[in-house]
Amino acid sequence: MISLTEENYLKALIYLSSLAPGIEEKKDVGTSELASYLKLKSSTVNEMLKRLKEKNLINHEKYKKITLTHSGERNGLKIIRKHRLWETFLFTKLDFDWIEIHEVAEQLEHIKSEKLVEKIDRLLGYPNFDPHGDPIPDKHGKIPQRITKSLSAVNKGEKCIVLAVSDTSKDFLNYLEDLDISIKTEIFVIDKIAFDQSIKIKIRQEQFSLSRKVADNLLVGDKFN
Amino acid sequence: MISLTEENYLKALIYLSSLAPGIEEKKDVGTSELASYLKLKSSTVNEMLKRLKEKNLINHEKYKKITLTHSGERNGLKIIRKHRLWETFLFTKLDFDWIEIHEVAEQLEHIKSEKLVEKIDRLLGYPNFDPHGDPIPDKHGKIPQRITKSLSAVNKGEKCIVLAVSDTSKDFLNYLEDLDISIKTEIFVIDKIAFDQSIKIKIRQEQFSLSRKVADNLLVGDKFN
DNA sequence: TATAATAGTTAGTATTGCCTAACAAAGTAA
DNA sequence: TTACTTTGTTAGGCAATACTAACTATTATA
Ligand SMILES: [Mn+2]
Ligand SMILES: [Mn+2]
Ligand SMILES: [Mn+2]
Ligand SMILES: [Mn+2]
Q: Of A195, B19, B37, B41, which one has the fewest beta carbons inside 10 Å?
């Protein structure tokens, strides 16, 4: 049995080694890095590493980097799958805000019931991405291809649909909420300003302009699926 | 903050003091009684009682009985409300079996989010009873009147609808599953046998007979609401 | 390469929640 | 009322998870 705390360590290890923004290929993780991400002291993490190794969830030699074993990876992906399915459920079935879902999913991801996960998955129509556009691993741990095209890459005169965000900070999500931009929002690119790389767009007949930073963090595609 | 464990103690105290079968008016609870219900040692319970008292959730004097404070009762009822709402959700929205829902709800009842509870409540149409027929406390802690009429009290020639069960043991629920009897099942009483107090019934054109014990544990009404 | 900075480990402590063993109080019955 | 039984409490321990302080290994830098 993997405890709630252990599950969070596994999830963090997957995040830091392969999911965190800017990571191309798998990267090994250190004790302090993990500690700082989990907002714990490295001594605490060090102790947990021993337990996780004992349980065959990680590989770790004294003073060396941490890697997940197959079992650790599988189990971690299960939690990520649950987290993202619950976020999707909260967003699409219960009308939670984009901003609120993460915190509740952080709790729901630890509910132990294979059947529940599968039923929620089915209820949602086996979605590939969560409301932030993050890919939902399937029950075998396979992860759909992440969306990589940002709004900055869309040409003048073209339209696209918001599929994901690459920044999920409250600040950013709140700003998007203000702009009334969400998943599935259709954006038409009116103009691209060379001077400051901002872009002029139209959403639902309304025109306004977005900074380069915002455009970079909006991931888009041709259609929603 | 009330821990998961503390929440389970509060729920158990409410159950033993007022909800357990056969309890007419509120009854005080003892340490060993609570321990045996929770399958813990009384020394363990004794320690927790100190913590609960410290947190103003129970009243307890050395060697005396335990009673819940107002706060303890309110918090306990909140957990019971969540438990029963989740059971209803699992049963009606996800097609879980009557038998499976309790175990999963035992986990879900501890999810901390007022908003989630209210959204689930709304999604379900503010139900008054869970799938076992147990009353769901409203958000203020008010408990709907429990159903008390059993199938044994239905007269020959009358029909009724199953609203609840007074025994929620796996044995009983499994047996009902076999008989294809569930919440909302319509039962017509063909005859009542004086000899062994069994009753002859008709369900969906099929006739069979039920023992007095089964009939006693099926709670019925005229209509579902 | 020597030294300073960073990263990782160990030792010792706390809290929660659980246990066993020993004991004390309360309740029951001879 | 005394003795037995049941109930409740204390003391002492243990595992999981976290902390601080002190120490060691590795890495970076002068
Ligand atoms: Mn999230
Ligand atoms: Mn979590
Ligand atoms: Mn239940
Ligand atoms: Mn519970």
A: A195
Q: How would you list the strands of the sheet with B159-165, edge to edge?
A: B206-210, B199-203, B186-192, B159-165, B218-221
CA distance A218 to A151: 6
| Residues of chain A with C-beta less than 8 angstroms from the C-beta of B111 | 104, 107-108, 111
Q: What is the pTM of this model?
A: 0.83
- Ramachandran category for residue B125: left, alpha or beta (phi over 0 → left; psi -120 to 50 → alpha): left
pLDDT digits (tens, 9 = 90+) for A31-56: 999 999 999 999 999 999 999 999 99
Q: Compute, in angstroms, the gap from residue A180 CA to the centroid of ligand 1.
A: 20
User: Right CATH number for B4-68 from 1.10.3210.10, 3.40.50.720, 1.10.10.10, 1.10.240.10?
Assistant: 1.10.10.10
Over residues B97-130, the pLDDT tens digits come to 989 999 999 999 999 999 999 999 999 999 999 9
Cβ proximity of A167 and A212 under 8 Å: no
Whole-angstrom distance, CA of residue A76 vs CA of residue A8 = 8
* Count of CB pairs separated by less than 8 Å, A with B: 41
Helices assigned H by DSSP within A39-193: 42-54, 70-93, 101-108, 114-123, 170-179
Strand C and B54 CB separated by under 7 Å: no
Whether residue B124 lies within 8 A of chain A, CB to CB, comes out as: no
Mean pLDDT of B168-188: 88
- B108 vs A: CB within 8 A: yes
Q: Where in the sequence of chain B do the CATH 2.30.30.90 domains occur?
A: 151-221
Q: Give the pair of three-digit tokens for residue B217.
A: 């544990």
Q: Which residues of B touch A111 (CB under 8 A)?
A: 104, 107-108, 111
In terms of Cα–Cα distance, which of B103, B110, B10 is closest to A110?
B110
Q: Name the β-bridge partners of B207.
A: B202
Report pLDDT for A34: 98
Class of CATH domain A151-221 = mainly beta
Which of A90, A96, A111 has its CB closest to that of B108?
A: A111
